[in-house]
């Protein structure tokens, strides 16, 4: 049944020369839109294509365009039974997709930009071909979401889940072990559930496969949801088992040999094995008949509800002109927002803090937060008479956007490609985002992060993004400050008490940041 379901259907509909005028005109204007829209958003499509090709997390997306073409081909024999029309409510969907793109463009959030770029392509279907065609192609249109490279946001959560599964299996197998965040210590050595071991690439690929198989191979919604649940749970559990296997093998053959075995297993071969297990388990429950069409074109053409919706027609040429105007408008708005820059002082300095004095910055392992695109950066160390030492990092931006995001991926306390690794989230205070970092497998550091723009003070990257979006959509320029207070755990005391003592000495932190940045 699977072989039949995945084969190309015999095309029984009329050829191009036999199509009615409505289809030839509608297909022509739709093709024009689909040629021009990728050019209008060429930067976003090029960025996505680079991620598909360069990042192993998103390599599976390279086959998504082929899958989309196949899904449409499946529906073609029935699709030609529907008369296409230009439909003005499609402008609402187009405007919504363009708004998402604009919000991403003005805030530097690539995920939103890329979702908007994909969304405008999908929105062209109801606008230029009408609600009946859009309904017939509903699943392929929804499946286009998998063109957007998302999943990095899940890495830390999956690292934690994998570490918990792994330590449970390690303890069950009789190996003495201790867990600290994503680090597991055993007699054979210290193991880290690193970002590359989080299993995110397999999870995203499995979900994409599960959604496709649920539509193609099942009719029952219960069975569809069961398959999706399996595609969510199985790769997460399997990744934990793989991590446990590496630790278990290391107890007998050593870390280096176990890591070598893991590198052989941990690739798309591992994904293929997990995928085959899921297919094998689901095969006998496939319930879509071999000859069952994916859509019923005649039923869609006769549906009275769609007929009522279809009354809101618009001319094809006005529809194309409206798209052109909307696209030009959001590009112009994004260009104006990108040129915004709040005035900043020529230089900034770390101020004196009562009860504390400046000392040389000499960390056991070099630590310097990343603040790409910031106009000013300061890093220094304070100490008090009680022996506490606190590192202070502050960065000042004239605005937020592409290449200058205080809360962007890889920005902040955890330096990419350094001796420092994320260990676990930590409780913050005063609204800060808390992170525990481990340097060189031996030095623990607690980092607290705040963002300040206008009257807003937060440790939430999402809150910062939303505020930045609002500012730039309103063409309002305000500086943004990033503050990170950090301390190392020392034999004489933990980092948290040192940070609490320093924090108490600065007074209201929002006012302290404003004095440092000289923006009040």
Automatic annotation (TrEMBL):
Residues 322-508 form the Methanolan biosynthesis EpsI domain. This is Exosortase A. The chain crosses the membrane at residues 21-43, 55-73, 85-109, 199-218, 225-245, 265-286, 314-336. It is an enzyme of class 3 (hydrolase). Keywords: Cell membrane, Hydrolase, Membrane, Protease, Transmembrane, Transmembrane helix. Its main location: membrane. It is a multi-pass membrane protein. Its EC number is 3.4.22.-. GO terms for molecular function: hydrolase activity. Signal peptide: none annotated. It is found in: Cell membrane. InterPro entries: EpsH-like, Exo/Archaeosortase_dom, Exosortase, Exosortase-1, Methanolan_biosynth_EpsI.
């Amino acid at each position: 049944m699977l072989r039949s379901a995945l084969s190309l259907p015999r095309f029984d509909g009329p050829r191009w020369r036999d199509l009615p005028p409505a289809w030839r005109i509608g297909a022509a204007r739709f093709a024009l839109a689909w040629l021009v829209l990728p050019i209008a958003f060429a930067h976003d499509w090029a960025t996505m294509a680079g991620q598909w090709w360069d990042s192993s997390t998103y390599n599976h997306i390279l086959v998504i365009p082929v899958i989309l073409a196949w899904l449409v081909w499946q529906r073609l024999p029935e699709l030609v039974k529907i008369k296409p029309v230009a439909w003005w409510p499609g402008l609402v969907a187009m405007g919504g997709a363009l708004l998402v793109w604009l919000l991403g463009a003005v805030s530097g959030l690539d995920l939103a930009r890329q979702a908007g770029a994909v969304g405008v392509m999908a929105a062209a279907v109801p606008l230029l071909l009408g609600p009946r065609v859009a309904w017939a192609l509903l699943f392929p249109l929804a499946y286009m979401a998998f063109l957007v490279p998302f999943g990095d946001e899940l890495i830390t959560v999956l690292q934690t889940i994998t570490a918990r599964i792994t330590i449970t299996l390690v303890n069950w197998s009789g190996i003495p072990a201790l867990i600290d965040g994503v680090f597991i210590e055993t007699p054979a050595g210290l193991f880290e559930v690193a970002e590359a071991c989080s299993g995110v690439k397999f999870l995203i690929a499995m979900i994409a496969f599960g959604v496709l198989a649920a539509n193609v191979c099942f009719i029952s919604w219960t069975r569809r949801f069961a398959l999706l649940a399996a595609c969510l749970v199985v790769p997460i559990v399997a990744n934990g088992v793989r991590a446990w296997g590496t630790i278990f093998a290391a107890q007998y053959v050593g870390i280096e040999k176990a890591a070598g075995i893991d590198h052989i297993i941990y690739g798309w071969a591992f994904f293929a094995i997990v995928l085959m297990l899921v297919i094998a388990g689901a095969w006998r429950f496939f319930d879509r008949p071999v000859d069952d069409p994916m859509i019923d074109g005649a039923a869609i053409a006769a549906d009275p509800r769609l007929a009522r919706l279809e009354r809101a027609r618009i001319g094809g040429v006005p529809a194309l002109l409206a798209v052109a105007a909307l696209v030009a408008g959001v590009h112009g708005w994004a260009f104006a927002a990108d040129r915004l820059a709040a005035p900043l002082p020529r230089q900034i300095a770390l101020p004196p803090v009562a009860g504390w004095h400046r000392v040389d910055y000499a960390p056991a392992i070099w630590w310097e937060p990343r603040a790409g695109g910031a106009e000013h950066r300061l890093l220094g160390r304070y100490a008090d008479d009680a022996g506490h030492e606190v590192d202070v990092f502050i960065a000042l931006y004239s605005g937020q956007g592409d290449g200058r995001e205080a809360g962007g991926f890889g920005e902040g306390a955890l330096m990419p490609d350094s001796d420092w690794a994320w260990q676990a989230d930590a409780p913050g205070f005063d609204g800060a985002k808390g992170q525990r970092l481990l340097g060189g497998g031996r030095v623990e550091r607690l980092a607290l992060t705040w963002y300040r723009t206008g009257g807003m003070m937060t440790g939430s990257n999402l809150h910062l993004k939303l505020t930045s979006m609002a500012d730039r959509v309103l063409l309002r320029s305000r500086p943004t400050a990033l503050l990170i207070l950090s301390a190392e755990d020392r034999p004489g005391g933990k980092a948290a008490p040192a940070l609490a003592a320093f924090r108490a000495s600065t007074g209201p932190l929002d006012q302290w940041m404003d004095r440092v940045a000289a923006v009040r």
